[in-house]
Amino acid sequence: MTGPTYKQARILIVDDIPENLEIAGRILENSDYDVHIADSGEKALSLLEHVDFDLILLDIMMPGIDGFETCRRIKAREEFHRIPIIYLSAKVDIESVTRGFQCGAADYIRKPFNAMELLGRIRTHIDLKKTIEHLETITTIDYTTRLSNHKDMLEKITYETYRYERNHSPFALILCQIVNYAILKEHYSAPCQQQVLSEISTLLQSNIRKSDLPSRWRADAFMILFPDTGIQTAQLIAEKLDRRFNRQRFSCPEGEFSLKMRYGIAVYTPNMSVEDLIGQAEKLTV
Length: 286
Fold this sequence. Notes:
By secondary structure, the chain is α/β, with parallel strands linked by helices. The chain has two domains: 6-137, Rossmann fold; 150-281, Reverse transcriptase/Diguanylate cyclase domain (Alpha-Beta Plaits). Helix content is 45%, strand content 20%. It has ten helices and eleven strands. The chain has helices spanning 18-30, 41-48, 67-75, 94-102, 115-138, 150-167, 181-187, 190-206, 231-246, 274-281, and strands spanning 10-14, 34-38, 55-58, 85-89, 107-110, 171-178, 213-218, 221-227, 250-252, 255-257, 261-267. It has a five-stranded parallel beta sheet with strand order 2-1-3-4-5, with helices on both faces. The protein has a four-stranded antiparallel beta sheet with strand order 7-8-6-11, sandwiched between helices. Helix 2 runs parallel beside helix 3 (67-75). It starts with 9 loop residues before the first strand and ends in a 5-residue tail after the last helix.
């Protein structure tokens, strides 16, 4: 795999002081980065809706929403979650540094910064981001939950349709969707979100059979494949999962809370396409 092309990397610098934007911007432009600037957290969030950035340099002390809140809002969006954020700040007390990492930052550089250190850390985090993106295109495992990912589950569902055509072995899907996922993303830190998703993964695996195949289907949902299973057994399993999940409490530094789950059940029938089968599960009837 070749390394990233730094000339094509887009970097967003967020700072309310024009001199800071000019200094950092000139250093990055001289290193052939595509530089964009924003003088507030609000403008940074607006730019993110229109431009795909490879990295963000973010000041902490700004009027309006500060750097901590800006970072938290960025990391709360699934489509922005992989963008590394580096704080550039004079606030280097342990409380500020800890809070910054809890909000989802990847690194922390003290102002006034050294140009060589800044460029070195930027290259490291862009390299890491591109490596992760490459691995995600070839791997079969979801990074956060360590379950099968969407791509791998699609292949397993397709295989089960072939197996059905050969020996008429029934199989079922259960889609488990976190109903209030938006609240988790909006009000809790990135480490908390990862912890919760990992705990849900463990809960699902401990309440299904060894032959069943759970996966992270999308940001807010898990898909479980049940080989050799008909509708009645699938319904019983969904009810069991629902009872167990309703008792589950999650605990993070932000507090203790619960989540709600809805379920969709689909059972394969002859000549059904994979798309129709998944569409049936997406109806979330339970």
